[in-house]
Amino acid sequence: MKILKTTLSIFATLLCVAVSAQSEEQMTVDTDTLPDDAIVIRRVPLASGPEIDMDELVVDTIPSSNAGLNIVLYNDNTWRYIRNRDISALDETVFTKNWSNTDLNPYDVDTKDLPISIVIDLVDSLKSYHYPYKGRVTSKYGFRRRRAHQGTDIGLKIGEPIYATFDGRVRVIQQSNRGYGNLIVLRHDNGLETFYAHLSEINVEPNQWVTAGQVIGKGGNSGRSTGPHLHFEMRYHGLSFDAERLIDFQTGMLRRETFLLKRTYFHSSSRFTQDFEVEIQSDEEDKRIAAEAAARKYHTVRSGDTLGRIAINNGTTVRKLCQLNGIKETTILRIGQKIRVR
Question: How many C-beta neighbours within 10 Å does residue 250 have?
């Protein structure tokens, strides 16, 4: 077992180096169709991760060099990283606060109570993303027949697999012939929630942990539906926004790794757009967000650590640590907890 662990550790290290060294795929643009002063922005979308077969048997779980990750070995000689749920989430209350297995919106938050903009990390070094379903958008987010349509509809055939978009936990399972029909609501590590409606089959249970790419149900035509399709929603604190800002449902690609969610996006008239000037501004905003994310630094709490000691070792103050982490000076630290220090 010792040799196996060492071999896996070396393999995992080489894999990470290979992935980070891989050059970005070049995107081609027909420059003849553009004006002379056009600025071409190359934004490489993220492909989906592998689909997860839940029939595979776990042979062993091995710690990795990162305390927040474990390596899981399967009976078909494959392996993958999984999160250590006890210490990996930066917000340890994301799966407990405002948690309900029955209420579709347990937050009771008004748009004006949210910040003007919120930075949300969509994927991490594990690239934990998979499209919910890849196909043609039949109805977009926004007003439809004078009523707010809070999601995106993607046409499908009954029985086709529906996938978990990010890692997370099942919050609501609803089986009904009204409204959403058969519905799954997942909450994710980044605080987002995704809705999967009109299903013909549900393959998960309330409070179950799921992984991006795991089949959670099958497409259908249940509830208030005029034909087989997936009604997919993205929400933050119970408020919906246009999921096409993040996902290209035609290709299945994730448009960006880090998302600046603006308060104005929660209005039903705020749709994703490919307007050229908006894309330039978005690209500049993405670069600023990436620079800020790169400047962040975290400390993993060890035995004997105190806020005072962590502050001194990182050239900051206890007050600043409390502001960055939303905690008090009297907060009891847990071993393995991540504290943002910059």
Answer: 13
304-309 contacts, C-beta under 8 A, 24 or more apart: 305/333, 306/333, 307/331, 307/333, 307/339
Helices (H) and strands (E) in the chain, counts: 4, 22
Amino acid at 123: V
Distance CA 182, CA 176 (A): 6
Closest residue by Cα to residue 83 from 96, 63, 69: 69
Q: Classify 155 in phi/psi space as left (phi over 0), alpha (psi -120 to 50) or beta.
A: beta
DSSP assignment letter at 214: B
Distance, in Å, from the CA atom of 137 to the CA atom of 131, rounded to the nearest integer, reads 13
- DSSP secondary structure, 153-184, as one string: EEE--TT-EEE-SSSEEEEEEE--SSTT-EEE
- CB atoms near residue 37 (< 10 Å): 5
The tokens 């550790």 sit on which residue? 9
Exposure on the CB side of residue 84, measured as CA atoms within 13 A? 17
Task: Give the separation between CA 74 and CA 70, rounded to whole angstroms.
Answer: 13
Q: Tell me which amino acid residue 275 is.
A: D
**Helix/strand/coil for 306:** coil
CA distances from residue 258 to 26, 79, 96, 246 in whole angstroms, order as listed: 20, 27, 24, 9
> What are the pLDDT tens digits along the chain (342 aa)?
445 444 545 444 444 434 333 333 333 445 555 555 554 445 567 888 878 766 667 788 887 666 666 777 877 777 777 766 655 445 668 898 999 999 999 998 988 888 888 888 888 766 789 999 999 999 899 877 767 888 999 999 999 999 999 999 999 999 988 899 999 999 998 899 999 999 999 999 999 999 999 999 999 999 988 899 999 999 999 999 999 999 999 999 998 888 888 888 998 888 886 554 555 566 666 677 677 777 788 899 999 899 999 999 999 999 999 988 889 888 889 898 889 888
| Contact assessment for residue 183 and residue 174, using Cβ atoms and an 8 Å cutoff | yes
10 Å CB burial of residue 242 (0-12, 13-18, 19+) is: buried
Q: Which amino acid is at 187?
A: R
